[in-house]
Amino acid sequence: FKYIDSNYMVHTPALMLTAMDNTLRLNIPVAIGVGNNFIKNTFIVSTAVEARYYLHKFIDYFSQLRLYFYYGYARMSYAKIISSAQAEGVDPNSKAIYKDQTSIGLDLRAYFNFPTDKGVSIEPYIRVLYSQALDTVENLNGTLNKYKGENFNITPYGFDYTSLSFDETGTEKLSGGYIASVPGIPNPQGRVPISGIYRIGIALPLGLRASKNYSLNFKLAELQD
Asked: How far apart are CA 213 and CA 151, in angstroms?
């Protein structure tokens, strides 16, 4: 639970499951952002479902598979903002004045383990990531406008209710595994931000692990598209 102030708060329940003699593990967190007062009727939800399947009991050298599914949806209501700006005839509690944004992503990782007779294991893995901003929909009392999205990482924790926007500076990262986050998109005066964005990343890290009286663990190699 994260309390911002009387206008916005975030809850994050999580469900964890195991099956198949603990070789299959699931982690399902759901972040839920709820707006009140200034942004009444605002609702934001996101998840980063993680599934791990451990194969080392059945297949030599192929230790595990991981699949991450990212989804984010935001309905941002701004009826009260318009009403407070002295717009005549606008119901501050209207549910027909809002902006919807959606993002989706998949992250697949395959881990390998090659032990040697020197007490050192070679542990490479392959990571493939795809993220995309889906279409944005705006509703102004029944008038719908649809255009390309501009954010592929919709999360309640990245929401700024004072501007009804999400962090686009790159601080909300989908990094890790040597795939860098996308840098902030420039928006010079008079220019529209880049929309319809997506990214595809491929990483090939290599790990070394010693099993003697000392430990060595570092990673190298990177490839991103």
From this structure: 47
Domain edges within the chain: 2-220
pLDDT value, residue 51: 96
Per DSSP, helices labelled H in the chain are: 79-84
Mean pLDDT of the 174-186 span: 46
Segment 139-148 shows an average pLDDT of 88
Integer Cα distance of 208 and 223 in angstroms? 18
* Distance (Å, whole) CA 172 – CA 156: 11
Contact of 114 with 182, CB cutoff 8 Å? no
Closest by Cα among 65, 55, 149 to 111: 65
Task: Report the SS3 class of residue 141.
Answer: coil
DSSP codes joined into one string, 162-177: TTTEE--SS-S----T
Asked if 102 contacts 131 with a C-beta cutoff of 8 angstroms, the reply is no
Tokens of 92: 């501050």
What are the helix and strand counts (H, E) for the chain? Answer: 1, 16
Q: Taking a C-beta distance cutoff of 8 angstroms, is the pair 53, 23 a contact?
A: yes
What is the rounded CA–CA span in Å between residue 153 and residue 203? 20
Maximum Cα–Cα distance across the chain = 79
